[in-house]
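Structure (tokenized):
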């Protein structure tokens, strides 16, 4: 029985005795059957109130967090809790309430109050480069529990008893994010500080926070930031992230090379990209990207961006560009007139294109292998009829989902069933109504039942376990073949593709039959 006073405090636990009438009767009968049945022996029986029944439970022992789940404080304490949370952000020095500990039922919540709090702080950090520093409080015990580096710093054999520690190589926002994880067990990442937070987590050996940073980067990876993240992943020695970056750069090479982030990479990363055998890009795009990088590098080195200085900062990396593999028009109208090549180099490359006896070149003359596209065919057979499949501006559409990240390069479409014919095709790829890629092009069919590829301008990145809508609007006078015996799930290499009908389809295409027989992708 729990006893409390009027204010609900001073709780006490009292043991109680349970008397069962049946038990009392049984005890009396047993005692009366004994040899001595006199009243005197009967009177020696212990009082029935001494019969104690022990009640056992098999409930699992609970921690404070299980007993007191996190919830909003009562109305009387809401203001105080909000003040403490605001204090963590503003780094105030005092806590007004004398019994602030009573507002938080778990040690985790009470510990979180100390985050960025001067109360009981026994060390301070001056974080950031000169001119952008921020002074942050810390508690040695909490920090040492969360990081082996802090443990060695405060309690190791070579520990220094300093009240203030300067950390010029870590950004204040990143250091705060790491402290928040150590104090509050909360991970708060933002796109503009995640790399700096990863650096802090690596420096102070906080592996779980570092893993969360890598996961955040992987989910936000795109062609726009892949080159920068490639450079950082090599610096932080994160092979999984490095591999993911290469997958994006290979498949969406032209987008990656044209991104602003490409100009921010270091020289070593530039060389590794220019050496890449599987870049899926035209060589003229690689050439122009290298010149853009050289111009920005001149600014970083405080050099005038002249032709000579651009060539100087590129160094031997210039010869990693496979200029002899360009289309002749691209070379004549682009690289040959850029000024970056010497006169002898320009003449030799022209001879490489035209002469039977080709001169020796310092440039790599072997074309890149690029990526081989995969085709996911969703029909088991195809057919044609006298009135199908007809196109009058209506939409053929199908939804699909994959179990691994891929890059959709285009669709395979059926052609004419009445001899050779030309079709105009507008293809689209959407996710939840948002257009991710589209293109308008023409293709010529030879009258066979083969599929004919129609490509997007750039491959479109597709995330796993999400349905996307593939659509095409065809314009042509001739009837075409159509697929039948469609499959809801197709295994294509290591990628599993699921199909379902789309409400956008107004021309009859569905899972069982119709157009869009193939998805063309890189994986």
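Design, position by position:
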């Amino acid at each position: 029985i729990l006893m409390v006073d009027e204010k609900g405090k001073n709780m006490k636990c009292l043991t109680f005795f349970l008397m069962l009438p049946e038990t009392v009767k049984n005890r009396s009968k047993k005692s009366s059957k004994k040899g001595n049945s006199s009243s005197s022996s009967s009177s020696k029986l212990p009082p029935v109130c001494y019969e104690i029944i022990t009640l056992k439970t098999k409930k699992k022992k609970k921690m404070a967090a299980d007993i007191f789940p996190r919830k909003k404080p009562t109305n009387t304490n809401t203001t105080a809790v909000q003040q403490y949370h605001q204090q963590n952000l503003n780094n105030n020095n005092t806590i007004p309430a004398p019994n602030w500990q009573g507002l938080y039922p778990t040690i985790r919540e009470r510990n979180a109050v100390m985050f960025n709090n001067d109360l009981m702080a026994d060390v301070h950090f001056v974080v950031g480069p000169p001119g952008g520093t921020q002074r942050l409080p810390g508690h040695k015990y909490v920090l040492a529990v969360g990081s082996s580096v802090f443990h060695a710093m405060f309690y190791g054999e070579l520990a220094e008893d300093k009240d203030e520690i300067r950390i010029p190589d870590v950004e204040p926002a990143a250091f705060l994010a790491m402290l928040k994880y150590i104090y509050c067990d909360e991970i708060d990442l933002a796109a503009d500080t995640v790399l700096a937070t990863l650096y802090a987590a690596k420096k102070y050996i906080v592996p779980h926070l570092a893993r969360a940073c890598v996961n955040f980067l992987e989910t936000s990876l795109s062609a726009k930031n892949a080159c920068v993240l490639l450079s950082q992943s090599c610096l932080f020695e994160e092979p999984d992230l490095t591999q993911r970056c290469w997958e994006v750069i290979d498949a969406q090479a032209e987008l990656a090379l044209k991104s602003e982030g490409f100009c921010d990479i270091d020289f070593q990363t530039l060389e590794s990209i220019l050496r890449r055998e599987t870049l899926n890009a035209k060589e003229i795009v690689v050439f122009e990207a290298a010149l853009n990088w050289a111009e920005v590098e001149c600014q970083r080195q405080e050099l005038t961006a002249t032709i000579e200085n651009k060539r100087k900062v590129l160094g031997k990396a210039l010869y990693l560009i496979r200029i002899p593999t360009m289309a002749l028009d691209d070379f004549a109208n682009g690289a040959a007139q850029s000024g970056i090549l010497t006169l002898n180099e320009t003449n030799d490359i022209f001879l490489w294109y035209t002469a039977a006896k080709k001169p020796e070149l310092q440039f790599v003359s072997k074309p890149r292998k690029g990526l081989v596209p995969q085709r996911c065919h969703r029909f088991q057979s195809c057919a044609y009829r006298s009135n199908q499949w007809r196109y009058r501006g209506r939409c053929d559409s199908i939804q699909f989902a994959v179990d691994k990240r891929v890059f959709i390069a285009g669709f395979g479409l059926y052609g004419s069933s009445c001899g050779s014919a030309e079709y105009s095709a507008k293809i689209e790829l959407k996710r939840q109504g948002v257009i991710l890629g589209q293109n308008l092009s023409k293709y010529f069919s030879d009258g066979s039942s083969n599929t004919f590829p129609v490509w997007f301008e750039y491959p479109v990145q597709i995330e796993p376990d999400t349905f996307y809508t593939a659509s095409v609007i065809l314009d042509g006078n001739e009837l075409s073949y159509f697929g039948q015996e469609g499959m809801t799930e197709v295994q294509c290499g290591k990628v599993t593709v699921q199909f379902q009908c789309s409400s956008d389809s107004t021309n009859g295409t569905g899972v069982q039959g119709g157009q869009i027989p193939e998805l063309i992708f890189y994986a």
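Reviewer-requested clarification: Residues 190 and 266 are 23 Å apart (CA to CA). The chain has three domains: 80-220, 225-354, 374-522.
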